[in-house]
Design a protein that fits this description.
The chain has 194 residues and is mainly alpha-helical. 50% of the residues lie in helices and 11% in strands. The protein has a three-stranded antiparallel β-sheet with strand order 1-2-3, covered by helices on one side. The protein starts with a helix and ends in a 12-residue tail after the last helix. This is Rpr2-domain-containing protein.
Length: 194
């Protein structure tokens, strides 16, 4: 257990040292980045996926160079569209959703590192057609309007009460501040003007 902790600390130290030396000495930073890669691979450390993706984004896997977009690497975004099998025209899809990829190209060794971005599913907001087509009875609308009026009044009352409480709290703070300043002798900046 202690050996794994030491290895993790060494890897963290090498990573931080590489980032600190990235501008001053890119060659030394690349060497430290490569040393960190080898250390993690040789020790077989379990690195969380999120941390691994962040490391792949910041350090080149081939030369160990610190990848700073626009300075030591080039970043491009690509979208991979749906593809259909050419042999089978029965519209069998190879991939169901378009994937968004970000490619990091190291300007030192020209290696391309691709990362797939997580896409969030689209939310569908809408009412069903049957609910929109039906009209409520006239008696029901009056009672719902009254209920809505009551809820808005209670909402307004509660917001007014909150506003009064806030205002009262602010006034109390101002009065307390004034009493503290008056206890100091009551000197003001204008008392010392010539």
């Amino acid at each position: 257990m202690a050996l794994v902790d030491q290895t993790e600390l060494r890897a963290k130290y090498l990573n931080e040292a590489a980032h600190l030396l990235a501008v001053a000495s890119p060659a030394a930073a690349a060497f430290l980045g490569t040393a960190r890669n080898r250390l993690v691979e040789d020790a077989g450390l379990e690195v969380p996926n999120r941390e691994l993706e962040a490391f792949r984004r910041s350090v080149c896997g081939a030369c160990g160079s610190i990848m700073v977009p626009g300075w030591s690497c080039k970043v491009s975004s690509r979208t991979q569209r749906e593809r259909f099998d050419i042999k089978d025209r029965s519209s069998t899809k190879v991939s169901t959703k378009p994937e968004k990829n970000t490619a990091y190209i190291c300007l030192r060794c020209h290696r391309e590192t691709r990362q797939t971005l997580q896409t969030k599913p689209r939310r569908r907001i809408g009412k069903s057609r049957s609910l929109l087509d039906t009209k409520p009875a006239p008696g029901v609308t009056k009672s719902t309007k009254e209920a809505d009026d009551i809820t808005t009044k209670t909402a307004n009352v509660s917001s007014k009460q909150r506003q009064k409480a806030r205002k009262g709290g602010l006034q109390a703070m101002l009065e307390k501040k004034k009493s503290q300043t008056s206890g100091l002798g009551g000197f003001d900046l204008m008392d010392f003007a010539m």
